[in-house]
Design goal:
The longest helix is centred in the first third of the chain and has 38 residues. Helix 7 packs antiparallel against helix 8. It is globular and about 55 Å long. It is built from 12 helices and no strands. The chain is mainly alpha-helical.
Length: 258
């Protein structure tokens, strides 16, 4: 019973940490996106509805990828510094899962949009498919794993299921509500983030020293920004809208980096 209790505690704590990570990644929009989208939809202001949604996607992309880079590069030395190397070895499996979790967060806005346009069947369908995915992963693997392997399996299934739900609802929203407007933005972000994460993975194998990892995190952020801009960035229309919003308070030279 002691082993089962320990496994349960580790799993619950890990799920809670992942959930808090999602909350942090959504902090810039957590309290404003639903009321803004609801008001614009009620006013049938389609042009502003589309624009605000695109700006929110941009914010979530930057916050999610930035957190993913920080987790991938600094999670190991920070845990080792705070709790010791042995503790990190016990939870090292959390790094790829946490990185994947914040990566999926890029697609979390579709769910909010669906609720505002009163199309609930995609949410129900997404929940059903997510449940199937999680149950399949758990039931096909749990009997072959030792107790120490159960926490990463459970947390990984949770993250995969939640990410699948977000991806499904977000793609449905892009198709049904926005007619694929702005989808290329997410494609560019996924491509830039994928290349950046791959390069960072090889960099993390070189050293666990905190200064090295700190420099690696800074290089990763810069690499993502440059690749994202090289692939097209936020797009001309969104960049122009941002310029109008800041109204000269930020140099246009900086805005061209978006």
């Amino acid at each position: 019973f002691g082993v089962e209790a320990a496994v349960l505690v580790i799993t619950v704590i890990a799920v809670s940490i992942v959930q808090r990570g999602w909350d942090v990644a959504n902090v810039p929009l957590a309290s404003v996106r639903v009321p803004i989208l609801a008001r614009l939809h009620a006013e049938k202001d389609e042009a502003r509805f589309l624009l605000i949604q695109r700006l929110m996607v941009i914010i979530v992309i930057y916050t999610s990828i930035s957190m993913g880079i920080i987790v991938l590069t600094l999670f190991e030395p920070l845990l080792g510094l705070l709790y010791g190397k042995q503790y990190f070895l016990a939870v090292s499996w959390a790094i790829p899962i946490a990185t994947l979790a914040v990566f999926f967060n890029m697609f979390s806005l579709g769910n909010s949009t669906i609720r505002q346009v009163e199309q609930y069947w995609p949410i129900v369908a997404g929940i059903m498919m997510t449940t199937i995915v999680m149950a399949t992963v758990l039931f096909t693997s749990v009997s072959t794993l030792t107790p120490s392997r159960l926490p990463p399996l459970a947390v990984g299934a949770y993250v995969l299921g939640r990410g699948f739900f977000w991806l499904f609802t977000d793609l449905w929203t892009d198709y049904a509500v926005f007619r694929w407007q702005g989808t290329e933005l997410k494609v560019r972000a996924v491509a830039a983030a994928g290349i950046t994460m791959l390069l960072l993975y090889f960099g993390t194998e070189a050293s666990t020293h905190f200064l090295w990892r700190g420099g690696l995190a800074a290089a990763g952020l810069l690499t993502f920004l440059l690749l994202f801009r090289l692939f097209g960035g936020v797009g001309h229309e969104a960049r122009q809208a941002i310029e109008n919003l800041v109204n000269g308070r930020v140099s246009n030279k900086w805005l061209q980096l978006l």
